[in-house]
Write a structure and sequence with these properties.
The complex is a heterodimer of chains A (196) and B (584).
Chain A lengths: L16 H30 L6 H4 L2 H26 L3 H31 L8 H28 L5 H4 L1 H31 L1
Helix pairs in contact in A: 1-5, 1-7, 3-4, 3-7, 4-5, 5-7
Chain B lengths: L1 H9 L9 H6 L4 H31 L24 H36 L8 H20 L25 H29 L12 H32 L11 E2 L2 E2 L8 H35 L6 H14 L15 H29 L8 H24 L1 H7 L3 H31 L5 H27 L21 H30 L57
Antiparallel strand pairs in B: 1-2
Helix pairs in contact in B: 3-4, 3-5, 3-15, 4-5, 4-6, 4-7, 4-8, 4-13, 5-6, 6-7, 7-8, 7-9, 8-10, 8-11, 8-13, 9-10, 10-11, 11-13, 11-14, 13-14, 14-15
Chain lengths: 196, 584
């Protein structure tokens, strides 16, 4: 039994199953982070005082992390484009870089966290720190998810390139859409938590 | 998903050699998963019903030991068989949670949606069979976590199925189990809803345009969108509540909170109303998740047993879509008494009145569909026919609750309980029973016994009303819900306390009538009358064009659709039904 439209697009919808599926998943992710952002707004509006993010958090470190994450999104696109141009070697290089940059992001984030902890700044300290740790923590979980998926595609999952190249390219595209979304969430988190 | 397709391909022709585990337990076949969902959900519903019987005993005879069952509950819950208030609260929270998240929705969506929808659209399976399996097992784990929470320190969650903060934050550890259980259930519903939408949009058979979809498929599509978009905010709320409970944050904890005479040691600054907003943003669409598949099942059975097309099919479809959209804009009508302000109340009261319109349109279309039909009073049809007025009562009793002013009086009374149980119990659950009797021959090749089915129907029908109608009366008299002694301490409820005994009697008699269903279900699987055709009800939709029971991959030859879904009694046709895949 074969499921139709796993690789090729359906004529009247112009989509394959994977692409539609990943967009729906991202829609649900928007609602997940939307719920958290709404909570942030409501808590901040209701608070008597609210600290300026930069007074507690380090803007330069976060700015560096922003650059890291944007770079990883660029290499993600390059990885997909390399597959489209039939260059598997470059694909591995680029996707490997994406994974490496994602790990770098987490290392920097871990340093930031431990720096806060060493100053006795825990989530229970204030509502600001509570939302900071919760949202960035959930975002970090998404980064870890991305590392697992992309790491799989660099490593054991890349065998599919030999048997079903088109399907493999579609998978990288889907993984890329997810990765750009994770990147985009950070683009919102950075100004909201550090700058505003 | 994709690899599975490749795998199956390489095994083409001898799929029946798959191991027993792959065939019945870790199956990727949507029909097996649908049956797994349905049976697990039915077991949970029975369990939730038993919890409720214990609660009703306590309400009817407060302070008296529960006969026989009481000795098994343990001294921590019911010393000497007499239920403690803390245990009553656990039962209340878990009854709601189990019935909604582990019973009705998994049966309506996971069970019927999985089994019937791909057949009705002429698909070989769901778009992502392995995600489908993951969805079921995630649901299963979530259910097990919920059950295990009864053994946690301090018992299961006891802050109501709504888990309102700050009560839920300071509650015993069962609440943490509840939150983890919900994370699994939310994951399950996310995987399921993505799969459903992709399947319906991508895997429709050639010729099956959107306006030719059976109404049941439409309701599943709208339901899947609700699950996809409404559940994540509850997940974020669950994360925040977990942080409040485990990391000591104060998302939902206001400053200056005093519990049992002592100030709570938290940073404060949180907002308990935030939880309610996030919770009801899910939980109101959830109401339509409960009701839409039921409307879909009823529509299929009404069309089939009136032998005529549904009246106003298009209007029903548009109403279902509008209903789904509006359901995101009514959540705060659960919060009129929170002091959130009259302007907001006015807004949500208006949207609530608007959303009642498409519900009434669908129900009216179903009632009008009966007019002029030659009705067959089969068991599924009896349940479907009873669904119409029962859901009608449920809907109409909701109107006073949707208006902020009468809600002042009715909020948190048994009137609310009566109202939403009329929607879900004699409403949705009747439709689900109808669906089981209707599709049972397709799944097993045998019909369920008609006599047992009719006894089940009439017993359940009478008892349902005996249980829930008195609640409306009690609520109007001002009797509060969630009172472990059945509100016997209040002067103003003395006149309506007598109904507590009535309700308990009807409840356990209804439990006895379910035995007819359980016996019928298992007996018919082995000994029921064999169906002689693949289409025993003489229906028009595609699920009846498969072999009985359908094999892995469903259709012998991929079907093509040439007609609208309900071409019954077409003038000039040879028979009184013309299947969708019959050429013009």
């Amino acid at each position: 039994m074969e499921i139709p439209y796993t690789v090729e697009s359906r004529e009247d919808t112009g989509l394959n199953n994977v692409k539609l599926g990943i967009w729906l998943f991202l829609a649900s992710e928007v609602m997940l982070f939307g719920g958290l952002f709404s909570s942030y707004v409501l808590l901040r509006v209701g608070a008597e005082t609210w600290p300026v993010g930069a007074s507690i958090l380090s803007v330069p470190i976060a700015a560096f992390n922003t650059v890291v994450l944007i770079a990883s999104s660029v290499t993600m696109v390059m990885a997909w484009a390399s597959l489209k141009m039939n260059d598997f070697g470059k694909f591995r290089l680029y996707l490997g870089s994406t994974v490496g940059l994602a790990v770098l992001f987490l290392v920097v984030k871990a340093y930031e966290y431990s720096d806060k902890f060493s100053h006795d700044l825990y989530p229970s300290e204030s509502t600001f720190l509570a939302i900071y740790f919760t949202v960035t923590g959930l975002h970090a979980l998404h980064i870890i998810g991305g590392i697992i998926v992309n790491g799989y595609f660099v490593g054991p999952g890349s065998k599919m390139w030999k048997t079903a190249p088109e399907q493999f390219t579609n998978r990288i595209e889907a993984a890329g859409l997810y990765w750009h979304f994770v990147d985009l969430v950070w683009i919102f988190l950075f100004p909201v938590l550090y700058l505003l | 998903m994709d690899t599975v397709a490749t795998l199956d391909h390489s095994h083409a022709g001898h799929e029946h050699k798959a191991s027993w585990w792959r065939t019945y337990v870790f199956s990727v076949d949507h029909k097996v998963i649908g049956i797994q969902y349905a049976i697990t959900a039915l077991v949970f519903m029975l369990f939730g019903f038993i919890l409720m019987i214990m609660m009703r005993w306590q309400i009817a005879y407060p302070g008296q030991p529960i006969p026989w069952v009481g000795q098994f509950l343990g001294d921590a819950n019911a010393p000497g068989g007499i239920m403690l208030p803390e245990f009553y609260n656990q039962l209340g929270a878990m009854h709601g949670t189990i019935m909604v998240f582990l019973g009705v929705v998994p049966l309506a969506v996971g069970g019927f949606g999985n089994y019937v929808m791909p057949l009705q659209i002429g698909a070989p399976d769901m778009a992502f069979p392995r995600l489908n399996m993951a969805s079921y097992w995630s649901y299963f784990v979530g259910g097990v976590v919920m059950l295990l929470s009864f053994f946690a320190q301090g018992g299961a969650a006891n802050s109501g199925w709504t888990s309102y903060a700050p009560l839920s934050i300071i509650a015993t550890s069962g609440q943490t189990w509840w939150l983890f259980g919900m994370v699994f259930l939310i994951t399950s519903s996310l995987l399921g809803s993505v799969n459903f939408i992709v399947t319906i949009i991508q895997l429709r058979a050639p010729g099956l345009t959107f306006m030719r979809l059976p109404f049941f498929v439409w309701t599943q599509l709208v339901t899947a969108f609700l699950l996809l978009l409404a559940f994540p905010p509850l997940e974020s709320a669950a994360v925040l509540q977990l942080m409040d409970r485990l990391a000591g944050t104060s998302f939902f904890m206001p400053s200056g909170l005093v519990v049992s005479g002592a100030a709570v040691d938290v940073s404060g600054g949180g907002n308990p109303l935030l939880w309610q907003h996030l919770f009801w943003f899910l939980a109101h669409p959830e109401v339509y998740v409960l009701i839409l598949p039921a409307l879909g099942i009823t529509a299929e059975i009404v069309a089939n047993n009136t032998r005529k097309p549904l009246w106003g099919y298009r209007v029903m479809v548009y109403s279902a879509i509008f209903l789904g959209f509006m359901s995101f804009l009514v959540w705060a009508h659960h919060m009129f008494l929170t002091g959130m302000g009259t302007a907001i109340s006015a807004f949500f009261q208006t949207t609530t009145m608007i959303i009642s319109i498409p519900s009434v349109v669908i129900l009216s279309a179903l009632v009008i569909s009966l007019y002029g039909g030659s009705l067959r009073f089969t068991t599924p049809m009896l349940f479907a026919l009873a669904f119409l007025p029962m859901f009608g009562i449920g809907g109409l009793t909701g109107l006073p609750l949707g208006l902020a002013l009468p809600d002042l009086h009715l909020h948190d009374t048994y009137y609310v309980i009566g109202h939403f149980h009329y929607v879900v119990a004699p409403g949705t659950i009747f439709a689900l029973f109808a669906g089981i009797y209707y599709w049972f021959p397709k799944a097993t090749g045998r019909k369920m016994n008609d006599l047992l089915g009719k006894i089940h129907f009439w017993g359940t029908f009478v008892c349902m009303n005996g249980i829930f109608f008195p609640m409306l009366i009690q609520g109007l008299a001002g009797m509060n819900r969630r009172m472990y002694d059945g509100a016997e301490m209040y002067q103003h409820t003395q006149g309506v306390l007598v109904w507590n005994g009535t309700i308990l009697t009807f409840a356990w008699v209804m439990g006895l009538f379910q035995l007819f269903f359980i016996v019928n279900f298992f007996w018919s699987m082995k000994k029921g009358a064999k169906v002689t055709s693949d289409n025993p009800w003489k229906a028009t939709t595609l699920e009846w064009a498969t072999p009985t029971p359908p094999p892995h991959g469903n259709f012998v030859t991929p079907p093509e659709v040439h007609r609208d879904p309900y071409e019954y009694s077409v003038p000039g046709a040879v028979q009184d039904f013309t299947p969708q895949n019959e050429r013009r």
